[in-house]
Amino acid sequence: MKLAPQDNVAVALRPLSAGEVVMLGGTPLRVARDIAVGHKLAAQSIAAGEKILKYNCPIGSASAPIAPGDYVHTHNVASDYLPTYTLPQ
Amino acid sequence: MTNTLQGYPRADGRKGIRNVLVVAYLVECAHHVAREIAAPFRERSVHLIGFPGCYPNAYALAMMEKLCTHPNVGGVLLVSLGCEGFNKRQLGQTVEVSGRPVLTMGIQATGGTQKTIAAGREWVAATLPALAAQPPVPMGIDELTVGTICGGSDATSGLTANPAMGVAFDLLVKGGAKTIFEETGELIGMEHLMAARAASPALGAALKDSVAKAARYYATLGYASFAPGNADGGLTTIEEKSLGAYAKSGQSTIDGIIKPGIEPPRKGLYLLDVVPDGDVRFGFPNINDNAEIAELIACGSHVILFSTGRGSVVGSAIAPVIKVCANPETWKRMEDDMDVDAGRILEGRSTLPEVGREIFDLVQRVGSGAPTKSEALGHQEFILTYKSFEPLGPACLPA
Predict the structure, then answer these.
(1) B217 at interface of A, judged by CB pairs closer than 8 A
(2) How far is CA B65 from CA B81, B95, B234, B319, in A?
(3) Phi, psi dihedral angles at B195 (to 5 degrees)
């Protein structure tokens, strides 16, 4: 679901599987890879450097171009304030 | 306002929702002795707190004074080694002036570990019956202070538990309670939204300054207040985590900024600025959730609303912690540790206003003596470390 109409990302309310097609505001969106509950996918094409909007608030900027249905997370989004710390996989 | 709670009246006019006897160590060297004194009484509302450092610190002294005279506290045993830098005389006097029973014991003067443990247990055993026999009196929501925190956050925290706690906060403010939300380091990116809700333009500017201070502080230290588990849970940046955290504050006007140990002067909603002032000293502002909880309690919070997505289990010494679980999968795994199932909102089985009302009702039951899950499980976490603060700026508490 989208949390605000202006958002360019949507949030998974249930686990989504790669290849699945979900309807988002009447538009079909093909899910690029498995996505866990609460994680985000692109609702539209997003250019590198563009702000990521959730609740119509900027949560960072795209660090790479993102295609509709792509998983949106630390690999393609960077904070506009402070870097995100994660453990190596 | 109807009196829906049960409180223990204190000499300063406040009421507590618990009648705890605190055993406090004044340096790590006295920790073991203090813990051993308290251990046999852990089922009888005897809680252990303390400060580990040997060097004196004005913040730590003020925190201990506020905690030892907190309305939920009915008596205090101070355990000193004897040579540490903590100002035990001032702390003991502050507690005595508050009208509470207090004893300061020095391990060196008493004759070592065993003699101090025996004498300490004797004092606790002699002091407890009067606390247990004290009858509670009716208490209103307008005599209550509630703090809120999130810990072990994931992407569901901002969708369910935090906005539901925001609904509960709005109900508490309407009922005349004092409410406190915090972590300026977890409000990075929200400064403009917060400023728009401020009671005065000058307070709005001060709110922005407090977040800018936090961003500077964390930038110097190299990390945001962002744990790897936050990213595993779907949060990508500190701004996204902040958005979720910010929802805890509800919709009320922000009436002021306070700092650790300062109580809200009136009813309403206050931001607790936990990030130290001046140059970066002593490390991270709050090294874990309990460091923040201790500060919320030192600001007078009787009870803490704690939202978690990943699944935190902590409680606290002195004040009960109500755990609001954001994630339905976490609820299934850890229901025994959770008080409220806010993940129902995600599954469409409940609405935000319903869960918000449920939290509000639970606050009143806990305020009448009902134990929370973490309380019943014996959680009494506590931590206090070094910090330094300057006095509040003139714009922080508009008249």
Answers:
(1) no
(2) 18, 7, 40, 16
(3) -60, -35
Calculate how close chain A gets to B344, using CA atoms only, in Å.
12
pLDDT tens digit string along A11-41?
Answer: 998 899 999 999 988 889 999 999 999 999 9
Inter-chain CB proximity A73 and B226 less than 8 Å? no
**Is the pLDDT at B1 greater than 70, yes or no?**
no
For B237, the closest of A38, A79, A87 (CB atoms) is A79
Task: Give the pLDDT confidence of B262-305 residue by residue, as tens digits.
Answer: 999 999 999 999 999 999 999 888 999 999 999 999 999 999 99
What is the predicted pLDDT for the residue at B377? Answer: 97
Q: Give the three-state DSSP class for A41.
A: strand
Is A59 in Cβ contact with B189 (below 8 Å)?
A: yes
Considering the four listed CATH numbers 3.30.70.100, 1.20.1200.10, 2.130.10.10, 2.30.130.110, the one that applies to the domain covering A9-78 is 2.30.130.110
Q: Does B325 touch chain A (CB under 8 A)?
A: no
For A58, the closest chain B residue by CA position comes to: B239
Q: How far is A25 from chain B (nearest CA, A)?
A: 18
Q: Which of A1, A52, A81, A87 should be substituted to probe chain B, the one whose Cβ sees the most B Cβ atoms within 10 Å?
A: A81
Q: How many CB pairs under 8 A join A and B?
A: 93
Domains in chain A: boundaries: 9-78
Q: Which of A13, A84, A87, A89 to mutate to test the interface with B (most CBs of B within 10 A)?
A: A84
| Cβ–Cβ below 8 Å for A79 and B159 | no
Give chain A positions within 8 Å (CB) of B219: 82
> How many angstroms separate the CA atoms of A1 and A20, rounded?
15
> Which residue does chain A place closest to B224, by CA atoms?
A82
* pLDDT attached to residue B2: 61
Contact A73 B223 (CB under 8 A): no
